[in-house]
Amino acid sequence: MESEDERKLTRLVRELVGGKPVSEVNPKIIPQVIDAMEQHKQTAIANGQVERVRKLQSIMAELSKLDRKRKSIGKHKAKSEKSTSRSIDTTTEDSHKEITPAVVESVLADIMDGFPLDVAENYLLPSLIQAARDHVNQELSTGNYKEAQRYEDVGNTLVALSNERMVEMKKNEKREALVYQFTQAEEALRKENESLRQALEDHDERSKAAEDALNAEEEVTLNDHDAVTNGDLPVEKLKFSSALLNLRETEKFLVLSRRFEEAAGIKAEADQKEIEEVKAIHEKYLKQRKIQRNKLVESFDQRRKCLIEKNARLRQRIEQDHQAERSALERAVENWRQRIIEFDKNLEAQNIPIVETKKTPRAFVTQRTPPLSAHRTPRPATQTRAIRPGTSRLAKLAVSRK
User: Fold this and answer.
1) Which residue has the higher pLDDT, 351 or 115?
2) Could you give the CA distance from residue 393 to residue 135 in angstroms, rounded to a whole number?
């Protein structure tokens, strides 16, 4: 299968053979054109087309001379440089604008010699059909019926080929429409999945931030609680028993009564009792603080649990909100996929090649068409005449002369 550049070079060679001036060839692609013409020359030699070989050799000589002249000048400007493919495209676009009779005659001569019509030359079909009809009339006027029949057959084949390629183009345009809908559905599904992913990601970030804030609050609260617990015993917690208070009152009375020995004994007893009571009060205080700490931990655990459950519900709601849209888009993608598969099966059943095109292509189905003889309709075995009455101008003329 030829590449796009090769097809454009083939067309340019035909235009040159048809009379296009070599001076109009972009100097950048002269070596490529010469190589392409060499291949055409070898084909013409193999087919015994002497005149075509001479024509090709003459054009190649002119191109070589033009190429040597270009190299001798040696002026290269960056602004004027373009890629080879773009140069070929420019030449092709110009040839579309003006279809010279010489080019049409050159291509028609190739077709008469058995060369296939390139898909890239479909724009020539109307001109080729008209040229074939003109040749039929010309040959009829000179009585050259055999040559007229050849042009008549080629003209009919070109008409059939034009209709066939038009059908192929319409079917491929329909397929492109299906592919476009499929890609649109796929893109919509991709965006929906991306939207869901982003929504879940944002939600997870917010959830983590909320949990981190709660953990930080818990840590600060527990640290403050532990600092108080591990500090000095609060004065308000020192509530002594009435027995200890009575001993202290007795101690004061004995001191005031100047009974110091008795006061010393009472004081020692009161001090020992105070130590015991302070220890008991402190132990009770620590137990209370531990209970308070456990309640704080339970409170934060409960808040954390509620937060996690809330975030889980919100996450599930986000997924549910997107699920309906995602399901619809998934069904649409699969539906368009199946329609394309069925359409391709129908094309294969009709023996129509499938073209994988870009965004807005306008190419026909085949890259290269088979020789025109492949498009001719076989005649019934019972038919012996070369011309079927009533099917061509040549036949009508023959009947009228009878």
Assistant:
1) 115
2) 12
